[in-house]
Amino acid sequence: MVLDSILASPHRRSPSFRKQFPANELGSWSTLFKRHRFLLTALALLTFLCTIYLYFAITLGATASSCSGLTGTQRELCRLEHAKASLANGKLKFL
Q1: Mean pLDDT over residues 76-94, rounded?
Q2: Short-list 48, 83, 46, CA closest to 64
Q3: Which residues contact 83 (CB under 8 A, 6 or more apart)?
Q4: Alpha helices of 1-95 — where are they, by DSSP H?
């Protein structure tokens, strides 16, 4: 009874649905690349920008955390020492 109504349902996938997408078209890498070119480009750009962000967050954020407990003149001397050390290493760090 219920099974008959499910089998007679117009929402069932017809055999013509499988004919729309041949098996060789779905499995091709070039077809997948063509269909998703925008998403792949956006993902590559996002990965590149996140890498740059993490590089600067790590290199520029390292000096602020080591001098965070100090105040006044001691803090400025700590920052100055870190700036001198970073210039000696060949890395430019902004205070």
Answers
A1: 72
A2: 83
A3: 63, 93, 95
A4: 2-7, 15-20, 23-26, 29-35, 37-66, 72-89
